[in-house]
Design brief:
Length: 264
């Protein structure tokens, strides 16, 4: 398989070098969801994230979508503006902000009932999902949004698209952490190029038919620019780390296997 990894990475580089990059095709993402938190203030969204969820609603709002708050669940509170109606000198009515109300809301995780659109992606059918489980990663779908397709942090991968290539990207971040010991905080250009190059390679190694090369090139191009590099130069810079990440994900050269061979 090691030769397959090298062959795949070299093939991707040759495509990048040729300049014949296919037009980027947008990932097949979830439709835009009309969930209350998408309209909340930044402060309220921070409060929601601090309470460990990406979707929170009031008691009646959950009932409207066929879900019930579990018995014993505890609400957390967000802030809603309180306005007072008053008349202007010209007789027209106006509203002025006089304060804020605390509104109780409940996490999606504390409800049960009908599945929501963004929870219908069959994550368990993803290639390499067993590797994520083996590493103790919690992989879950979250609502479609304009901020990101996927995220990785701690022991969690969150996906706002059913595209496996995005899952591979986030899984590669974790593998990179395993082989390097630690990752830099934020979106470091080298880490992002390693993850995206690895995701593109995995897509090819696993024989998936969806064309993702255009997306990968544009993604790598954007991060390579931060370092003043071309996409090809950026890939060459991280080729060694990418190979290690792929070996880790595909479970090659396990330490215990080497030891067994040496003792034979």
């Amino acid at each position: 398989m090691t030769s397959k990894i090298n062959e795949t990475l070299n093939g991707i580089l040759q495509i990048f070098k040729s300049g014949q990059i296919p037009e980027a095709v947008s990932y097949a993402a979830f439709p835009s969801f009309d969930i209350p938190s998408e309209q909340w203030s930044f402060l309220n969204r921070i409060i929601m994230w601090m309470n460990g969820t990406y979707d929170a609603r009031g008691f009646r709002q959950w009932l409207k979508v066929g879900r019930r708050v579990k018995k014993g669940a505890r609400a957390f509170h967000i802030f809603a503006p309180r306005f007072q109606k008053e008349k202007k000198e010209d007789g027209e009515e106006d509203y002025s902000l006089i304060g804020f109300l605390q509104v109780p809301v409940f996490c999606y995780e504390d409800t049960e009932g009908e599945p929501l659109n963004y929870t219908k992606t069959v994550i368990n059918s993803f290639h390499l999902i067993d590797r994520a489980k083996e590493w103790g990663l919690n992989v879950q779908a979250v609502s479609g949004n304009e901020k990101y397709w996927g995220s990785y942090g701690g022991n969690s991968i969150k996906l706002a698209t059913p595209e496996e290539a995005v899952f591979f990207h986030e899984l590669s971040h974790h593998a990179h952490k395993l082989v390097s010991g630690e990752l830099k905080k934020g979106q470091d250009w080298k880490q992002e190029v390693v993850a995206e190059l690895s995701a593109e390679a995995l897509t090819r190694i696993l024989g998936l038919t969806r064309e993702t090369t255009g997306n990968s090139y544009k993604y790598i191009e954007s991060y390579a620019a931060q370092a003043g590099l071309s996409p090809v130069a950026a890939c060459l810079e991280v080729l060694s780390d990418t190979e290690k990440v792929l070996k880790m994900i595909l479970q090659e050269d396990k330490p215990e296997e080497k030891t067994a061979a040496e003792n034979a």
